[in-house]
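Posted in: Protein Modeling Q&A

I'm a second-year student putting together a small comparison for a lab meeting, and my supervisor asked me to include a predicted structure for MFS transporter. I've never done this before, so apologies if this is the wrong subforum. The sequence is pasted below exactly as I got it from our records. If anyone can share the structure token output, I'd also love a short note on what stands out.
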Amino acid sequence: MPAPTTASAAAPVNPRSRVLVASLIGTTIEFYDFYIYATAAVLVFPSLFFPGSDPTTALLSSFAVFGAAMVARPIGAVFFGHLGDRLGRKKTLVVSLLTMGVATFLIGVLPTYAQAGWVATALLVVMRLAQGFALGGEWSGAALVATENAPRGKRALYGTFPQLGAPLGFIIGNGLFLVIGALLPSTAGADPTQPSDAFVDWGWRIPFLFSAVMVAIGLWVRSRLVESAVFAKTRESGRVRKLPLATVVRGHWRQLVLGTFIMLATYVLFYLMTTFSLSYGRTAKDAAVPGLGYSYTTFVLMMIFGVLFFAVFTLVSGPLADRYGRRTTLLWITAAIVVFGLVWVPLIGLGTLGVVLWLVLGFTLMGMTFGPMGALLPELFPTSVRYTGSGISYNVSSILGAAVAPFIAVALWDAGDGSPWLVGVYLSAMAVLTLTALLLGKETKDVSLDDGETADVADAVPGDTPAPAPR
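Accepted answer (user: helix_wrangler)
Welcome! Here is the predicted structure, written out as tokens:
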């Protein structure tokens, strides 16, 4: 093996604390932005941007715009993956975070349908697509920052830190909505399942505007990063590909497909436990499609309690995946998701205690299945196409899982006459597909992120020559 170059040996190294904070803070902000949209999509967007429809149709329209962002995510994965595999992880992460922050802030100043008609709805769609485009490049870059800088034997643990941004973003976003709701209470005699007039008029905008503060902090943290030694070595040796998308599609298509379906159950569970459950939990029991009838404040507090388990078990999953392997850990967890989908209606039928147990179990499984993905998906691909490959798998799965999950769930909820048993069956069926993908895949625990480079030249497609090494 050739000795490392002087440049590589002298290259600055990211302190472990900086790696963990930088990978965590960006995904926290990104998920915060996504969660506040999801919450607003349930609480106020149906009436503000889709008036004139019956409540179910307006909610489905709002969820359709929510899902539209998932369609933009693979496009963002290709765009930011190209930048990340060509120019480096740091610059790309800064651009993706800035794009997300600007789009979220602008949602907070949009006119409503009553003020601008269909133009308001169109602008909401555009901003939502921009959010999805940005998130398409965020996750894979954050996961690479964590895993490419991880010490030996702790890659899955480090990979859980960008994943931890999901529960933290949820708690911050929904906690802020709760504070605003408490400061803007409904008038006496108002429906407790509905937000106050002041919240609908202007209160919902505050979380979107506050995103600018969080983005500024995130940009400062990420600006202090240096490139990982793994990527720096690839760039210095001239193995950076001019067309990483072509290389990954032609040379690593099997990993793309397996990675996409390995993420499927995670995405479906994720959005059922957040977006759908919020709608189901706060819909009145005497509605046309009955729900659980909790007030918004009560149910969100119950959800936040469940999300605490999401956070804890995201971190717990890392050491387990490092010790027993990513594939073995996920096989057991995905099998548990299959069972969970079949028993959640009996749990809900037990009353408030059963609803809390449903949320706790669902979010616990969410943490256990989401945590190892931060290491597994990047480990499927060599360094020169890792940003592109892991990003495409992660975000194409968002279309198959997250984009349609809330929409399908509402339709199945309606078809079940108010009972979500069909929603649970849907979750179980998607988990079976993930089990199949895991069984067809291989364990990546002992894969060396450097060793993957030997495959780059062999897997390169005609015309995709290495980009010139930097001078």
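A couple of things worth pointing out for your meeting: DSSP finds 22 helices and no strands in the chain. The chain has one domain: 14-459.
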